[in-house]
Amino acid sequence: MKRLKIIEQIIIVLVVAVLIPFVTIGIIISNISQQSVRNELANNTSLIAQFIGEATENYVLLSQSQLDQIASGFSYIPNTMAKIQYFDDIESKTMLFKELDIIEKNKIPKDKYDVKNGRLTLVSPIDADKNYYLAAQVNINIIDKLLSKENIEGRNIYIFDYFQKKLIATNVDTTNTYDVVSDLNLKQDSKKGLFGKKKNTPKAYYKMKNPQWLVVVDTTKNVTAKTIIKARYRIILSLCIAAFSIIFIVGLYTYYLYINIRQLFKGITAVSKGNYDKKIHLIKRAFTPHEIVFLAKEFNYMANKINVSYKDLREKNKELERLNEFRENLVNATSHEFRTPLTSIIGYTSRLLRQDIVLDDETKVKSLQIIKQQAQRLSNMVEDLLVIPELESYSLKFNIQEVDLADSINRAIEYLNSSEVEFVSDIAPDLKNVWADDYRLEQIIINLLDNAVKYTKDNAPIEVFAKNVDGVPVLTIKNKCEKISEEIKQKLFEKFIRADSKLTRTTRGTGLGLYIVKGLAEALKIEISLDCDEDFIITLKFSDYV
Fold first, then answer.
1. How many domains, the chain?
2. Edge-to-edge, what's the strand order for the sheet holding 423-427?
């Protein structure tokens, strides 16, 4: 089973926990709102039809009442001229009735409403037998007022004479009249009602008694768009804004959380691969949880401790490697270098102890000299091995005193003068004395001269110079040797480093001489320098002098 990433899981959670509930809620609220607005729209349509019908009825009823009052006073007028004057006064003062006239009963028009002129004919009897009637033309201008935009709210209004199936008035083009009439479904004994096939565009009717007209109100698509559809869009828009606000806030929180978790992930991965220097750098904002900050802090602390421990362990391993190499080199050097002088000592000692041969005095003296020389060589190697721990532990003790530098140089030359190599010395008479340990100073010079003897080329002479340079005593030892590689040159003062190959070992020695010289020189504040581009030249500069 494939494991989803954090961001993928969060997207799924958002879809399940936010989008689906919001869509469901939106559909429910939209349907409820649509149903509510639809009912309200139907009620308003019915009320508009009723309002127009009742207003028209009241207007006609008021006009008929006034006409009846005028007709009741007609019989009291004495002559014809007075009656004519009476009609003229009514027409001029009321502005309600036009063309007042006396007509017979059989001349009452069946079609009392003149659509063309917008007038309604009203009659009222003027005698007890009701043979004659007072007829008046009433201007139904109230219909135009009732059909104004302020009253109908954008709906289509139709007024029919439902007995003669005649259109009395409308506020729109009559092209849709047939569709409205075809949808009309009057309920028996019902003064008003709703009809129509479309729920969102309800139609309403209202039956008037006097006149016997029918008011039909048709809800247009524009009204539906302003009510139901607009309300639906507002609900959807509000839900979308709320959903996107939640998604934005959750997304912003998730973004910082995801970035910081990725930082933790990268840090853990780096540590698992051995990169202990890796540090977690969080994006600290208001959305960054305390637990993440705590984990990052603890991880950085842990990584730092591991890094320090790893470095210590690495240094310890290097030290163990150095100690192991030192041990191996020490065993190899001592086993190899000690074997040669010991073999010579044992051989010449056995020769002197033999009883079956007679040795002359010269042979005995020569044998004893070789034994002494090899014993001295063993002593020097032992001394080198003993002084190393004291140098490395800084526990070497010195007896600092005024030392005759020229005398120390001469003693060292005399000590090694038995070798096959010649020493050429040039010591200035005014060479200053130095402050040093006489024994350790002589050990430094002997080691340098012995090193020069070992590596001199073709037994060339060893040159020794000692003089005051700018008032400072300086000792220079020079010998000719084979060219030294740059790698060996950089390591000449390290332990067990020799100028010859480790495989050939053409010279004697343990490889500790220059290392001991370096350590003793630094302890005695003697500056040592090396130049081996052409000849091998070592220079000692004494900073502490008399």
1. 3
2. 423-427, 462-469, 472-479, 536-542, 526-531
